[in-house]
Amino acid sequence: MKIKNFKTIDTIILGYRTEPQFGLVIGLHFKTVRYKPIGIVEIGISENDKKAFLEIARQLQIRMEKQTFWVEPKLCCRIQYQERTDQHQLQTSIFKGFLFEKDPENCYWTY
Known about the structure:
By secondary structure, this protein is mostly beta strands. It is 13% helix and 46% strand. Strands 1, 2, 3, 4, 5 and 8 form a 6-stranded antiparallel beta sheet that branches. Strands 6-7 form a two-stranded antiparallel sheet. It is globular and about 45 Å long.
């Protein structure tokens, strides 16, 4: 029997992509790097969440680069993940919800 141990972390939404499927580019602050991308979360985002986010994101969009729409880092979301790589990239990440009241300055990697 395998037991998967998921962890939860609050992240900053740095951007999104629509192809090949919708996903949020998420990031965190580290001791030496701010707004470091740590992955793309595609699982767990409902159609209602997606529509609400896209309405807000249009006002925050900065630029498009390689199928990624980068936005001002003003929104946070809670992510559940299984593991992280040595480069701090999250694996098996699942969207759990937006955190509209959370300040992006408070989203950092806890060592």
